[in-house]
């Protein structure tokens, strides 16, 4: 296994200054797979801040990726506002029942108190543990589920899509209270010393049209980004699925980075908005990272670098979405090792030469 010459935090600071580094930043994006690395059940860290922090810390120390993220599932804000959850013994939490069933109940919804409501205090405490123990080595962050996505979970995705056509005012009310919850949670996270990244899967053009994105998601997304900027916090976002039609919108909002799904054209993304924000992605999390061989992971990582490395604001290796829980550990190693093998600086000739070699055969 190749070794890094810099810590993730040293690498991040050098890149920010335009200084040389040892390799591209690389974030495999394990999500709840951190339970497998640490050796606990997923349910354990859904009910223990110490276990959640331990899993995040163990994952950093095992792989030395370029971020330590405190996150469990997409529903923490919606749950804190009244939604009911399914808590499997050893799988990801899922939505059981939205917070409300009818638009007449919207006015009863209240923004979250991160220090009191449901699992949010657990997450806040885990952030403090993580930052205190490894914040000197790696950039630490909280993943906040964005205003529109959290709003969808308050009344249900299907009802939200119908309301966008039949009752726009109701959708805006849901997004408004959801935005305030995002701000409250992010403020508490910032107070623990961590950065913020934003997940907005329901804003994908695979789910809603670009027109509906601009009407219902973008205004609240932008206000959330503006709030973070007012606190001196830069931020990144990940939106699953097709996003090409809204890349310019996201760049206009002032994101520092965007992580893109493997279903989009990475090279085109760098050409369209790579001069305005850093591009991250987009190794296939399923057919390559989960189901592929180490050599397939290595080759796909190199191919992604071929497509992304010319991005003017920078490029980072990342899976196209959160990895399946049972993604083989050796495949995660292969992604990080590929980043180290590619090294820095990079040329097209170097990448072609690496592709011509089968390292694991």
In words, what does this structure look like?
GO terms for molecular function: uroporphyrinogen decarboxylase activity. Pfam families: URO-D (PF01208). The protein has helices at residues 8-16, 34-38, 42-45, 49-63, 76-80, 120-134, 147-155, 157-166, 168-191, 210-230, 247-253, 266-273, 285-290, 294-308, 329-342, 348-355, and strands spanning 25-27, 68-70, 84-86, 94-97, 140-145, 195-199, 235-239, 257-260, 278-280, 315-318. The chain has 361 residues and is of the alpha/beta class. It has a domain at 35-283: Alpha-Beta Barrel (TIM Barrel). The strands form two sheets. The protein has an eight-stranded parallel β-sheet with strand order 1-10-9-8-7-6-5-2. The longest helix has 24 residues, at 168-191. It is globular and about 60 Å long.
Mean pLDDT over all positions? 97
Q: Which structural class fits the helix and strand makeup?
A: alpha/beta
How big is the Rg?
A: 20 Å
What is the tally of helical segments? 16
Look up the CATH topology of one domain: TIM Barrel
Order of strands, main sheet, comes to: 1-10-9-8-7-6-5-2
How large a portion of the residues is in β-strands, by DSSP E? 5-15%
Relative helix content: 40-55%
- The total count of strands amounts to 10
The first-level CATH class of one domain is given as: Alpha Beta
Q: Globular, elongated, flat, extended or rod-shaped: what is the shape?
A: globular
Elements, N to C (H/E) = HEHHHEHEEHEHHHEHEHEHEHHEHH
Low-pLDDT stretches are none
What is the CATH architecture annotation of one domain? Alpha-Beta Barrel
């Amino acid at each position: 296994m190749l070794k890094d010459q810099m810590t993730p935090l040293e690498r991040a600071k050098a890149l920010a200054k335009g200084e040389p580094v040892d390799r591209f930043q690389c974030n495999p994006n394990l999500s709840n797979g951190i339970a497998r690395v640490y050796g606990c059940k997923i349910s354990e860290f859904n009910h223990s801040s110490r276990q959640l922090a331990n899993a995040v810390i163990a994952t950093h120390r095992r792989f030395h990726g370029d971020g330590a993220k405190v996150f469990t599932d997409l529903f923490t804000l919606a749950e804190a506002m009244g939604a009911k959850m399914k808590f499997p013994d050893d799988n990801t939490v899922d939505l059981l029942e939205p917070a409300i069933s009818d638009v007449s109940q919207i006015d009863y919804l209240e923004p979250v108190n991160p220090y009191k409501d449901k699992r949010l205090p657990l997450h806040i405490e885990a952030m403090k543990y993580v930052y205190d123990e490894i914040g000197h080595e790696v950039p630490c962050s909280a993943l906040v589920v964005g205003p529109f996505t959290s709003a969808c979970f308050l009344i249900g995705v299907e009802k939200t899509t119908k309301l966008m056509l039949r009752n726009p005012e109701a959708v805006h009310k849901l997004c408004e209270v959801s935005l305030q919850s995002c701000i409250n949670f992010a403020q508490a996270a910032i107070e623990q010393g961590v950065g913020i990244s934003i997940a907005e899967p329901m804003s994908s053009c695979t789910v809603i049209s670009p027109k509906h994105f601009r009407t219902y998601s973008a205004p609240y997304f932008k206000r959330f980004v503006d709030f973070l900027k007012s606190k001196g916090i830069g931020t990144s976002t990940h939106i699953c699925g097709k996003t090409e039609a809204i890349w310019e919108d996201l760049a206009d909002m002032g994101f520092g980075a965007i992580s893109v799904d493997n279903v989009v054209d990475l090279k085109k993304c760098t050409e369209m908005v790579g001069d305005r924000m850093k591009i991250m992605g987009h190794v296939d999390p399923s057919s390559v990272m989960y189901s592929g061989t180490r050599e397939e992971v290595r080759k796909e990582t190199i191919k992604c670098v071929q497509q992304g490395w010319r991005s003017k604001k920078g490029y980072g290796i990342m899976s196209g979405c959160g990895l399946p829980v049972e993604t083989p550990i050796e495949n995660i190693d292969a992604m990080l090792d590929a980043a180290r093998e590619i090294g820095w600086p990079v040329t097209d000739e170097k990448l072609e030469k690496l592709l011509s070699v089968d390292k694991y055969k």
